[in-house]
Design goal:
MFS_trans_sf; disordered C terminus; Growth Hormone, Chain: A; mainly alpha; transport; 524 residues; two-stranded antiparallel ribbon; 2 strands; EmrB/QacA subfamily drug resistance transporter; cell membrane; transmembrane
Length: 524
């Protein structure tokens, strides 16, 4: 076994150039999720669609991601990482431009699916490319670079989306990807190493027919839950059950072929298993509730989309401060000694949101977001670093694919669960009937929903005859957000349980174990 250097080498210019390509792709893929989230009210007004219909602009994108991620490892082996990465960039950019041309909500959802097919490959491919470029002793530092768009996307997305919508039009939240995509393609052509694809192993068609449709069906059912408000609804439990059965069938099947679509044998690696569980629980907890932070500012405080995004900025500042430090520590200190403390910081910041009301101080909330950001910077990427560090070179593509699938499922489940809890709480508000502004016909709603509508439409609020009703409804809505955030807070605390099993001793890297005497290639 080759001796390890005493201290990790610094990242050289060649490696940082490769990191730049990957970060550009990750920024486009992740930013587009959060940018679209603030545009939902605009889409409702522009296309005359309901919230449930517009929500498919996000759900369709998520389903496409989940469907294509399992294919990434095999495709990287068959066609080469550079070629596949550039193809994914091109597909995502074309999908973005088409989204800007949509004339109705159906077209927009279809084009978002095309975007997702490209975006789904960008993250696992990017993780694979960067892990190989860094080598075993610099993975932590380089993964911290990749962590920038992963952690800052949810913060900068609402700011960028709000500014583009307020200053220009909704079309620009998609068109902005065109110059970035073209620049990334040119950059990738010159910077990424030339592909040397070898004869690929046989493609696991049986596994694909079980896993990809299974994930898509399960996430379809989960994503429909907020709309239907009941897990017993046919649109929810039927696809969820069918998807779960297909995924379970794949789990049993995957141990038979030599080269399955998704290699679950990797979970025999204790570090990967513990890191995967910790990452999944954290993603359910934080990403689900985190998407509701801007909604709280929009719906309870009546802020504009731009101001709501700016109020989220302290979280990004906190993450930027700790992320480089966490990346260096991940190369030197076992993450079992650092990640639990980062999770405690997140929980400490999160607690303030469990107490929110209609007039909660922005100083308190922004300070809490800053503390959460400090913890976020030391959580997600160190966990991924630990998971990939002990894999061999040819296992990295499969390991990163596995982590991305877990994140996608956990994020979708977390978002759906938090949306259901919030909607259920809001629906418990006192029912009222008001005349429709256009037709004059009576419309059934609740005090909370009416108050939220008034906060987002000050002109309507000023003309409403019963201001005390709006005040009661707004207080109820704020309490509903507080209850939802409390669930997220408890889940963050539960993340500490698997985190306590993360490695507390120095990990031995196996990344170079299979390189002796052979040219390293991506295999799946």
């Amino acid at each position: 076994m080759s001796s390890q250097p005493a201290a990790p080498a610094k990242l050289d210019g060649a490696v940082l150039k490769i990191a730049g390509v990957v970060v550009l792709g990750a920024i486009m893929s992740i930013l587009d999720v959060t940018v679209v989230s603030v545009a939902i009210p605009t889409f409702q007004e522009e296309f005359g669609a309901t919230y449930a219909e517009v929500a498919w602009t996000m759900t369709g994108y998520t389903l496409a991601l989940a469907t294509v991620i399992p294919l990434t490892g095999w495709a990287a082996d068959r066609f080469g990482t550079k070629r596949l990465y550039m193809t994914a960039l091109l597909l995502f950019t074309i999908g973005s431009v088409l989204c800007a041309t949509a004339d109705n909500i159906g077209q927009l959802v279809a084009y978002r699916v095309l975007q997702g097919l490209g975006g789904g490959m960008l993250m696992p491919l990017g993780m694979t490319i960067m892990t190989k470029a860094a080598g075993p002793e610099r993975i932590g530092r380089l993964m911290a670079v990749l962590g920038i768009p992963m952690l800052l996307g949810p913060i900068s997305g609402p700011i960028l989306g709000g500014w583009l919508i307020d200053s220009y039009s909704w079309h620009w939240i998609f068109l902005i990807n065109l110059p970035i995509g073209i620049g990334a393609l040119i950059y990738a052509q010159f910077v990424l190493p030339k592909d040397r694809p070898e004869p690929s192993e046989s493609f696991d068609f049986v596994g694909m027919l079980m896993l990809s449709p299974g994930l898509a069906l399960f996430l379809y059912g989960v994503s429909t839950l907020p709309e239907e408000q009941s897990i017993t609804a046919g649109k929810v439990w039927i696809p969820m059950l069918a998807g779960a059965l297909l995924v379970i069938g794949f789990v049993f099947y995957s141990f038979k072929p030599k080269h399955p679509l998704l290699d679950l044998r990797l979970l025999r690696n204790r570090n990967l298993t513990v890191a995967s569980i910790t990452l999944a629980v954290f993603t359910v907890a934080f990403m689900g509730a985190g998407l509701l932070f801007p909604s709280y500012f929009l719906q309870i405080h009546g802020e504009s989309t731009l101001h709501a995004g700016l109020l989220m900025a302290p979280q990004g500042i906190g993450a930027m401060l700790t992320m480089p430090i966490a990346g260096m520590l991940a190369d030197k200190v076992p993450i079992g000694r650092t990640v639990p403390f980062a999770l405690l910081l997140i929980a400490a910041g999160f607690f303030a949101f469990t107490q929110v009301g209609t007039d909660t101080s922005y100083v308190l909330l922004c300070g809490s977001l800053f503390v959460m950001g400090l913890g976020m910077g030391g959580t997600m990427m160190p966990i991924m670093t630990s998971a990939l560090r002990t894999l061999t070179n040819h296992e990295v593509a499969r390991g990163s694919t596995l982590l991305n699938i877990l994140q996608q499922i956990a994020g979708s489940v977390g978002g759906a669960v938090m949306s259901v809890i919030l909607t259920s709480e809001l629906n418990d508000s006192t029912p009222v009937t008001i005349p429709d502004p256009q037709t004059g016909q009576p419309v059934a709603t609740t005090e909370a929903q009416l108050a939220i509508g008034a906060q987002m439409n000050p002109e309507m609020a000023a003309q409403f005859p019963d201001q005390s009703l709006l005040e009661r409804g707004l207080e109820f809505a704020a309490d509903s957000f507080a209850t939802t955030f409390t669930v997220g807070f408890v889940l963050v605390l539960l993340t500490l349980i698997p985190a306590l099993f993360l490695p507390r001793k120095r990990e031995v890297s196996h990344l170079l174990d299979d390189e002796k005497g052979a040219t390293p290639v991506i295999m799946h």
